[in-house]
Amino acid sequence: MAENRWLATGNFFTSYRAEQRIFLTHIDRLIFVCFLVLLFAWPLVFEVSNKYMLVIDSILIAIVAVYGLNLLTGFGGLISIGHAAFMGVGAYTLATFSRILGSDHVLLTHFWPLMILLAGGVGAVFGAVVGLPALRLKHLYLVIATLSFQMIFQWVINFSKFLNQGQTIAIGRVFWFAGKVARKEHYFFWYYVILIIVVILGFAVRNLLRTRYGRCLVAVRDNDRAADAMGMHPGFTKVYAFALSGFFAGVAGALHAYLWRGVGFESFTLHHSISYLAMAIVGGLGTLVGSFFGPAAILMLELQVENFAELVGHYITAVGDVATAFRPLSFGLVIVLFLMFEPRGIANWWRIARTYFKLWPFRY
Amino acid sequence: MKNKQFTFTLVLLSLLLVLGISSHALGETYKIGLSLAITGPTSDVGVPYSKGVEDYCKYVNDEKLLGDDKLECFIRDDGYKTEVTKRNLEDFLDENIVFYLNYSTGSTLALRPDFEEEKIPVLPASFHIGNLVDSNYIFLPISSYSSQAVGLAEYVVANHEGSGKPKVAMFLHPSAFGRASRDDVEKAIAAGLGIDLVEVVEHGKDLDNTAMLKRFQSKGVQYVISHTVQPPVATMLKGAQSLGMAASKYGEAGKITFLGAHYSGGPDLIGLAGSAAEGFIWTTSYKIMTAKGPGTDAQFALAKRYGRDESVANSQNYTNGIMVVQVAVETMRRAKAKGKKVTRASLYDELLTMNGYNAFYPLTTVGPVTFSKTDREGVDTLQLYVVKGGVFHEQGLPFASEYMKKMQQ
Q: Any chain A CB within 8 A of the CB of B196?
């Protein structure tokens, strides 16, 4: 049967190469391109307040961070609860430059793409070092090792006078071809920058998973002894999974620093690490699209819960502190419900929807 | 025909006049924003603070303190998260606020570049002296935490009856702003303040301080100066009471006298520590409800008018909320009186001239509010309060830290 690249109603792969295609059909590619055009065009059409642009930019940064966590936990099977600390490493790389050279030094303001890459590199180095215990530790023990890194990170920042004891270290405004990016354009500028990075890194992850290095991750996750017997190196695979994850987190940390125009300890706590893990779980562990859905769902949920908690807080006094409880309650509830009823995350809903339309008008 | 034209013109002119007058009568609306913790950590402070702001805003409009002009106050919860505070600030800036009231130290420091760029005057609820570094638009409503801690240390020296230097320990919030007051006490000691700083403790979330208190005792600590929030202080006081270490009168030999800066004390501390709070010495620049006077009477009337319960009415954080709006409104009134348009720039200018004969007396504080280019700590004086019979009572007259003055010169 000849392969129709426009409409595929089943799996007609005739080679491994065909199975590894990024877009299975031309329709997929077309939809993706249209969606991308939409993402780039909408800010030019609709006027969005700075408040909401900040939320959207934060979601995009979280997507970059969750790419890394998904590689590590979803594809590599290595649970990390120190992801925010890796982000912090990236952000504090910039902060270190700011402390030594000044917040408006040309390196930070003009060579910011380089600085973002550098922050990713430093994140990767820290990731690899923290990943070393993965050579000997598994499961809960490895979780504790990553928790230790989170604690050490927080302690060092909190007591380091050089790093301002966790208080915000300012990062200057960046320059673009048109000159300094003014406050008015700040969030729009970073929206496009982060969106481009999200697209590039998304393709990088997708491509990585098509290579033997990506397949190694999955193989080691599923059975490291079997992977070893097949000629893979489980130890090296685990360490590079941590390094890769650290790179993504470092880039996300640097973007965070630039977007918020400062680096403060409060953005990289254990609470944030758990939030990133929740984003990966809710989105769908071990899926690329899950990295988009998770951050968007959790951050939008937080925004709505905040609004609701504020409303309640105005009417119910702090004695009962009912309003305060809404945040952790709703957050915990969402994770528990997903683990119970949809452990494959929102990505599975996406898969079901796609399959439905693929088979339409026949029933799924 | 001409008559008709004349009548029509007259009617039109009258209409325009009426419209003009009525639009003038509607007046301007000045917007101010407040982002604070109504939920989450420190919401016990944030809730009465927000009520103070809300009530005084209503009062300004109800009593027409700005004439025909209106005051619109945006109050948003940030759950003590800097990320949310930033979002709230962006929202307020989109609303064209002319004055901003911030809350936590972390967010005040994080948003400092935004304040500078927007050139907006800011009054935070944090009195961290570091807020004033590299900043032109942040004004502390009252004396800094450092001034409070050094002032308490000076009080210890002045009233110590034993021989030798008084042995003091500091009990601090585990953060940079907690440590800042320690740094200034150490600077004061280097400048000649006669205390022996035996130990500095950054508290955790301990529910028992026995080990720490025993250590203090073994080191001969006579005074503990706290600069943190009320719950850990209450835990320490209860521990000291159960171990029989708390001094029954100031400076009692062999016992420990406890003192604290603004957020360490207040009526809520008595609620938390109960009888263990007896003898606790606290300093703030605010008048509290047990200290009778026109300011506290007005505060009580305001709370009653807007249906607040007793715990809110008696809270120094309610006073704090009222006071920051009082300052904002006063700058508006002064700008208007000078015929200036109420803008961020004119309010900033008015704040800078709020000194000398132009000092502002809000009655809710123990001294006048003074600001200038070189002085951005509002109320420079502090009042000591001591717990007697389950109530904070004024002790002595308002004072200012001499060593802080020396160090700032």
A: no
